[in-house]
Amino acid sequence: MLHVEHLTASIGGTQILKGLDLDVGNGEVHAIMGPNGSGKSTFAHTLAGRDGYEVGGTVTLDGADLLVMTPEARAAAGVFIGFQYPVEIPGVNNMYFLRTALNSVRRARGETEISAREFLAIANEAMELVQMKKDFLNRAVNAGFSGGEKKRNEILQMAVMQPRLAVLDETDSGLDIDALRVVASGVNALRGPDRSMIVITHYQRLLEYIKPDFVHVLVDGRIVESGDYTLALHLEEAGYADFVNQELNEVPGRPMSGAPT
Amino acid sequence: MTGAPSAALAPELSLEAQLERIATIGYPTKRDEAWRYAPHTILHQLAFGPSGVVDAAVLSGIDDQIPTLAGPRIVVVNGVFDEARSDITVLADGLELLLPGHGAHGVVEHGVVEHGAVLPDPGRADAPDAFAALNDAYSGVGVGVHVAAGHHIVAPIHIVTISAPAGTQNATCSRVAIQLDAGSSATVVETRLGVGSEFGGANTRTTISLGDNASFDHIIVQDVPSTQVHLSHTEATQSTGSELTARLFNLGAVYGRLAYDVHLTGDGARVDLSGLYFGRGDQTLDQQINVIHAAENCTSRQAFRGVLDDESTGIFNGGIEVRPGANGTEAEQSNDNLLLSNRAEANTQPRLEILADDVACKHGATVGQLNDEAMYYLRTRGIAAEAARRLLINGFADQVVHDVGIEALRTWITQRLGHDDD
Asked: Which of B380, B398, B421 sits opposite A81 (nearest CB)?
């Protein structure tokens, strides 16, 4: 489904991703953990298509080359990124934004547009999922939202967009335990056989709520270890020190044991 | 209160004396702070004179451009009342209108009451500049709006000023005088439009007088063709406890100038001024705002936004003057500009003169471009770059547009700004 092969990314002459390999199969949830500065967010934004990176290697989604696509084309292809820091857009109504987004990808896919009324039903269902009050849709996108509201809005958008691949970049950062539960249960409700997820996190805490099928350790721009959920537990106890040291002694481009392709 | 208009209209200066004074003081120059960024070469091409009736054919097509609002409509073309385009058949209790006739001082019938008291002093010996003096000289009787004490006029009063320049005398003057007596309320929408592709201009003056505890909403929408100059000057005086809300949309004209002076003379008066200027091509859009706090416990807010594309120029010159003794003043001012082109220009100038002790005053100005991070965010949601750009621009502008309480007018403005959805 998602195939990443020797992905490199640099910005302003500094290489951040140094040959990342990953395969994500249909319906799988992969967690990517790593210390600060290991390239987790860069990986997420390289998948989403942010400007400013020099990118090499291969990334395909269902066989289509993502790296040549604009961010909006990637969204139409089914990529969704949940931002670590969702952007405030004063003056743009949340509901109008969401409907514009949904209809933009529908148009790009040659599907019919959703009317305002039909959209309201979709939005209401999504709102319930993240336990948001009705007035949420009438506010400006993320403007004046609390940290928890912003993250819930990300999951709300994901529920509306129904992506093929969701990349959640540190969705747990800045959340208290109640908000974390809401966000995680929203994510869990959206798991399905046709939807894959990459959950990027610094801490194991989120993974208690979103049980991943695979856990990968990202250190210095490469995946240095892969395993099942127990790897996350190990990291929680031992930290990243093992891997940082190990990685230094390893041959670059160590093959990883991800999902079957 | 109802007096003979001719008596109320007696000018301080004769027309000859006014014209002589204009010749003596001359047009403003770049050295005048309030006219610093004005295109002076263009202003010198304006030729003012008395109003004249316009050939009907020239106006074909204008009707579709006029927003349709509930309430009475007064249309003035080149300073002359256009009875056919106006609708003053239903006037609420407590509302009186004075309308300019087809001559200098005519008053039309329709049960409309003449009301000299609302009119400003014509032919002032101390008109602040040559354009103000020209307005005195040529604007004639003007439109008068009077709301009697304690009356609440719900439907907006729509005053449409159309300029149709033709020939050598290409610029005309008009004026509106509004008086709300104590405890009354009303809304006036002034729409300024123009026809034709000839160069010319309009010079409008609006005076507002608010009695104790009166509440007034004022909206100006300026959208004349880009071949024209539009000079607009509003002067408001507020008594104790009165409230003024003004929304100014400066959209059209090669040089569009909206000057707005507010004089808070009664304790506890409140004024809330906001505006949007949206420039394209080589437009220069100028906002000259002055609020004078001359009484205690008054509040004022100025919040103006500019969107400037191509080679357009936006000006915000905003003054807050707090006179000695005006304690308890709360004044704030903000000006935010969005530049869409590297040839566009924003000039923002706060002027604060605070001569009282107990004053809370804040001001801030920003000039920026579209936020890259917001663009990226929208694009990751599938919204294509051009649509994302439009969404952000409209989002910036809508923060002013959404303040307009009249839905039909809000729709008119959003459509004018190129929205496909409200």
From this structure: B380
Chain B: closest CA distance from residue A100 (Å): 7
Contact B377 A87 (CB under 8 A): yes
d(CA A183, CA A180): 5
**Could you report the per-residue pLDDT of B211-262, keeping only the tens digit for each?**
999 999 999 999 999 999 999 999 999 999 999 999 999 999 999 999 999 9
Beta carbons of A104 and B384 less than 8 Å apart: yes
Contact criterion met (CB < 8 Å) for A72 and B379: yes
In the predicted model, what is the mean pLDDT of residues B176-190? 96
Q: What is the pLDDT of residues B22-60, one digit of tens each?
A: 999 999 999 999 999 999 999 999 999 887 778 888 898
Distance CA(A238)–CA(A244), nearest Å, equals 12
Tally the domains of chain B: 2
Asked if A220 and A227 touch (Cβ cutoff 8 Å), the reply is no
Give the residue from B266, B294, B310 where a domain finishes: B266
| Residues in CB range of A83: below 8 A, 6 or more apart | A154, A169, B377
CB contact under 8 A, B382 and A101: yes
Instruction: Give residue B122's pLDDT.
Output: 63
Mean local confidence (pLDDT), B181-198? 96
What pLDDT is stored for residue B118 in this prediction? 56
Q: Is residue B283 part of a domain?
A: no
Distance CA A61, CA A166 (A): 12
Tell me whether residues A50 and B376 touch, CB distance under 8 A: yes
Distance from CA of B379 to the nearest CA of A (A): 5
B83: Cβ–Cβ under 8 A, 6 or more apart, which residues? B108
In chain A, how many H helices and how many E strands? Answer: 9, 12
A-B C-beta contacts closer than 8 Å: 79
Say whether both B37 and B186 belong to one domain.
yes
Instruction: Indicate the residue type of B375.
Output: M
Residue of B nearest to A72 (CA): B382
- Return d(Cα B24, Cα B415) in angstroms, integer: 45
Among B266, B295, B321, the domain-final residue is B266
pTM for the full predicted model? 0.86
Q: Which CATH class is domain A2-249?
A: alpha beta
CA–CA distances in Å: residue B15 to residues B130, B137, B203, B212, B313 = 13, 6, 17, 35, 35
B50-105 pLDDT, tens per residue? 877 788 888 988 999 999 999 999 999 998 889 899 998 888 899 988 876 543 33
The beta-carbon neighbor of B380 closest among A75, A97, A100 is A75
Determine the distance in angstroms separating the CA of A79 from the nearest CA of chain B, rounded to an integer.
8
Which chain A residue has its CA at the smallest distance from B396's CA?
A91
**Residues of A in Cβ contact (< 8 Å) with B303:** none
**pLDDT surpassing 80 at residue B209:** yes
Task: Kindly tell me if the per-residue pLDDT of B2 is higher than 80.
Answer: no
Q: Is B130 part of a structural domain of the chain?
A: yes
Residue spans of chain A under pLDDT 70? 245-261
Please check whether residue B25 lies inside any domain of the structure.
yes
Q: Is the pLDDT of residue B307 over 50?
A: yes
Domain that holds residue B49: 5-266
* Min distance B216 CA to chain A CA atoms (Å): 26
